[in-house]
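Hi! If you just cloned this repository, the fastest way to understand the data is to look at a raw example. We've pasted two of them here, unedited. The first protein comes first, obviously.
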Amino acid sequence: MRADAAPPHASALMFEQPKTPAAVLLDALNSGGFRASKPAPIQPPREPLGSIPKPPKPTPPKTDLGSIPKKPVKPLNAEGMTGKLQVSKSRGQQESFTVTADDSHTFRIRLTESGYAVVLRWKDAEGKRPERYLCYFSKAEWKKAQRDSLSAFVALVLIKLNERKASGEGDADKLDALASRVRAVGT
């Protein structure tokens, strides 16, 4: 046997080296055997064995306005007024609040040095909105009035107006006219 010739069993030992993934991909691209496949669908995560599946979250009922649910109507008490006084904080530098009694009457409550000034605004026949001072509330009276109903608020304002009239502060006829206007709001 020649020295430069390989032994017969050596051909069996000569085998191809495994191809790298890049080489396999390159061969597939060159031979036209590569096809783009669909991505695998994404599966939701599985619950661990033995766990209790959670019920689906309830969805609000659809209305004719799309996905905006209607707000429930507040129940009325026997007097026809809502339970709690409807107060909105007014914008501005001075701390003030607005209590809407009906379409034409509103009460404005403004913070002053000595307490909360209560003012009545209404729409007159000319379309103007006159504003008249009624009384002062202490901080405790105002906090209590915010938790009460409109009828209790009107009753407190009428008591304060009667105290003003009894003390001789202001014109009695004008105070009576204001009291009758406030009384009409409370009914």
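Ok, and the second one:
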Amino acid sequence: MSGIPFFYKSDLALLVPSAFLSFAVYALRRRQIDRHSFIYFAAMFIVLYAQMIKFDFFPVKVYLGIFLRIFFAYFVIRAVGSRFIKIFINVIVASTIISYFFYFPSYLPGIERTFISISPYFDTPFRNHNAAYMYWPGLILYNINSKGGSPPLLRNSGPFWEPGAFAGYLVVALAFNIIIYKTFFNKKGKHLLFGLLTTFSSTGYVALFAILIFYIMVKAEFVYKMILIPILIAVSIVAFTSIDFLGEKISENADISGNTHNTRFTSAMLDLNDTYENPLLGLGRSGETRFKGSLYAHENHRNNGTSGFLATYGIPFFILYFFFIYLGISKLCKIYNMKSIFALYFVILLLLIGFSEVYFFYPFFYGLPLLYPILRDWREFEDSDMYEAYKPSLEPQL
């Protein structure tokens, strides 16, 4: 459901039953709410309640949607337990492999047009029409939004709303893969890496270079760091200045002339102005408070997820959100004997990919701060391959 157009276009029509189904599994497994998650829920409730009082406005559907997404993520994570991260990697790898069967045939004459012609049969009957956004044709497991690269190259969206969005999920899966398997180049890592290359996403490529640097920082000896990192930085500079579509996209998104509101940097500037207006609470998710009730879609469209999240919920919740993610990833690094500094690198990667897409309003990303509890309790690992390696550090010491 997180970022796949068939599901999010259906809005509450599929979100509500999905949340209740996940709750049923959660209840059957008799999980109990933990203090960490309670703090996260309470913080969100306080922010939304304070916004309601400040703006004297109660957007019922917006608030319902936020809490359904958060609790859907929570119930799934708690029901699945310590297997969640490996399952996420496997789902993204499977989505990448499936995308090959649509992406590569699209280079053949008439094939992409055929996919588009049959796409209405795969559209959701619960579509929530929003004039502010363009919905691309899709086949549920593959979204047909291949334009924007350097002709004749097509871009791979996978099941997500656009190639850049697919790139972000691939980057997160790659980071998890590195923590767990200590390598870029296992079978799963190769699929994730190749899938990322087929997106032709400038932000995805920047994030890839960042991951490579972070990987070298935590895995390589000092001498190799001194040699490899400057080479990698030089290669990245050459790539982004000599490859046309990368340079053009970066120049386009760096435009702060004010002629458009949908570049990354312009969105960031507008969002930071909004944050300055109400730094503690943010301006909320509703258009009535976020954009002063403006219905001008072009002006209201913001595509910088990092600054948008800050402007929506305010500075304190923004810090809490990423700190809780850091705690969870830090614990994951400890379990798999990865240097704890990689948890900070993980957060930096999220801030980086969020600069180009509004990821943080989707269930998966609402759920990332909730990973810590499933990694904290040793009982979560009894039926997993992590348990034996991690058990000694969790047992009482005499």
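That's it. A detail worth noticing about the second one: The mean pLDDT is 81.
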